[in-house]
Structure formats: C-alpha cells, structure tokens
Amino acid sequence: MHRNEKVLAFGLGITVLLGGCNMGTDNVKNKETGTETVAQAGEEQEISMNTENLVSVQDYNGEGYALRNGEETDKIAEDNREEIEVAVKKFFREKYKTEVIVHNLVGAVDGVSVFVESVGEPHFHAFAIVPIDVGSKTVKTDGVWSQEGQIEDSISSGLYAMAYEKEMKNLDDFVNQVIKDYPIVGKNIEAVNNTDSNYSTPYYYISVFDDVFDDLNSMYFENQKISKVELRSILDESKFEPEGVNITLNLFMKEANTEPDEKVYDEIYEKIKTADGLPRGSYAFMLNDNLINKKYGTGSKSNTLDKNVLSQILKE
After folding, report:
1. 43: closest CA among 125, 109, 91?
2. Which of 18, 76, 133, 170 is 20 to 30 A from 279 in CA distance terms?
C-alpha cells in the first residue's frame, strides 16, 4: 500500500495500521452483518465480534492473539523459538540496521509472525514473518521477510518521535493528565509489545504517510547515529502537511459494563483541539468500552465513539 493510498483510507474514516496500533489490526465494520473485515498482520479476513473473545482491557496482555489457520504453525514455532529469534534479530540488524527484542510469536498459514520492539531509538514496534513448512515441520530461518513498507513505516514513526522529542513529551503529559481526569484507561504495555506496530504506547500510536519519511529512513540506514536535530531540520525544511502524520488516541472506559461516554469523548476531543505544543500532524480520538477482542487485539466495536471523520484535528 502506497502512502497516498493510506492517506485516502484514513480520510474515509478507516484506521490505518498494519499489524499494529489499534491492537494490530485494520478494521472496517459492516453494520448490517455485525462483522468486521480485518487486515491483521498481513491477512484480510471477516470476523464476528463473538462475545466469548471479549475480555477487560485491564486483563489483556496479548495472550490469545491469533491469526487464521495458525494453530499448527504456532506449535512448530514455539518448538523452534530460539532459532526463530536469532534469525529475526539478524534480519532486522542486517536489513534495517536495528537491534530488536522479540516479544511474541503468532502462527499463521505457512509461517509465523514475529512481533518485535526496537532497542533504543528510533523506538518502534513491528513484525517479521518466518516461513514454516508444515509438512516437514521445518522453520525456514533463511527466508525471513516482511510485508511491503510495514517495517519502513514503523521506523519512520520512530524517527518522527525522535525529531519531535519536546513535543512528544508534551503529548505524553497531555495524555497522562486526561487519564487522571477521566474514568478511562489505555492498554497494558504487554499488549502493545505483543500485538502492535509503529511508534505505539498504551494510549496512542503514530502512523506516517508523507514521502519525506523515506528520506529520513535512508539517512538512518546510512548513519544510525543521526541526531534528533538533523531529523527535525529535515522535517522542518520539508514543510510536510499535517495530514502526513496521524496520531490516534485509542482509549477505553475504565469500568466494566460501561458504554463509551459521549460527554467524556466530546470533552477530551475539545481538549485535543485546543492543546498547545503538540507534535505537528493530524489527530484522531477513539473511545471504546472496557472490552477488547483478545483474538484480534481490537477494542473497536459498533459502540466505539469515533467522530474524527466529521471534524479533523490538525496541528501545524
């Protein structure tokens, strides 16, 4: 998917993430059938929001996250976990010049998705795929690959966070104050580590679309010691449009059996609009009830409050 296509998707109200941020999924609801089409770690499938898969967000650590037809490869992957970790770390080190920590292995058709977190800066989450021959139960560690653009975009979001270090601190302070003032929570950090991509925290995630980030990535691959000042200078000179970066606050009601509170949503949305000192970009806000789908890692349901398409928030 090209960056301009992802911008279009967001403009239509579709949250864009590949294996990450909104619990590692792209979700498009079908209100008539009660199902969602999900792009999850490189797969597209239609799912039913079965209540047996719903758990309190406070209890969710990513356990139970699953991909289609992954039961057999799940077991093979766990039996070969050590060599898979070695291969994936080598893949990121050689191709992306980045050291990573392996957090989660999730079996899929003919392979395993390996969720990782970068060590140090740029900070990001991503996943790579290791092929598995189910017939011979062989893990093909020499064939590690990634979905086109997925890791590159994750790195870009981390470089963006580095460039806007001061403003990112302001954003974290803003979110922490909102969490203190309202009966809402984010995800557990374990869930972020085990299911997400891009620059992600328990409360928000960052997606980048502007082509200027391709240049930033190239500079990082050439020089892993590139400074935050250099990165910021490039972004300032590029004058990228705010729509080129999206920061999505994805929060949950704190109490069980509580519908998303529209008054709370509207007040926080207005606070985002009027907040000063936040990173340049476009902002979105989603408020879910207290439940998250453990299998697909998403809190998005028919009752989720999401008014972003009606009133886009831009920060220059």
Report:
1. 109
2. 18
CA distances to 49, 79, 223 from 138, rounded to whole Å, are 34, 10, 36
State the CB neighbour count (10 A cutoff) for residue 1: 16
**What is the average per-residue pLDDT within 12-24?**
33
User: What's the average model confidence in pLDDT over 126-134?
Assistant: 97
For 118, half-sphere exposure in the C-beta direction (CA atoms, 13 angstrom radius) is: 25
Distances (CA, A) of 87 to 78, 113, 198, 256, 302: 14, 13, 21, 41, 40
Which has the higher per-residue pLDDT, 76 or 5? 76
Tokens 């992954």 label which residue? 70
Strand order in the sheet with 111-118: 100-108, 111-118, 125-133, 138-139
Domains belonging to the chain, first-starting first, are 3-66+152-315 (no CATH), 71-147 (3.10.450)
At residue 271, does pLDDT exceed 80? Answer: yes
For the chain, what percent of residues have pLDDT higher than 90? Answer: 78
Write a three-state SS string for 169-180.
Answer: HHHHHHHHHHHH
Q: How many residues does the chain have?
A: 316
Distance between CA atoms of residues 49 and 35, nearest Å: 6
Report the chain's mean pLDDT, rounded to a whole number.
87
Helix/strand/coil for 16: coil
The span from the CA of 293 to the CA of 150, in Å, is 23
- Comparing 260 with 46, which gets the higher pLDDT? 260
More confident residue, 178 or 6: 178
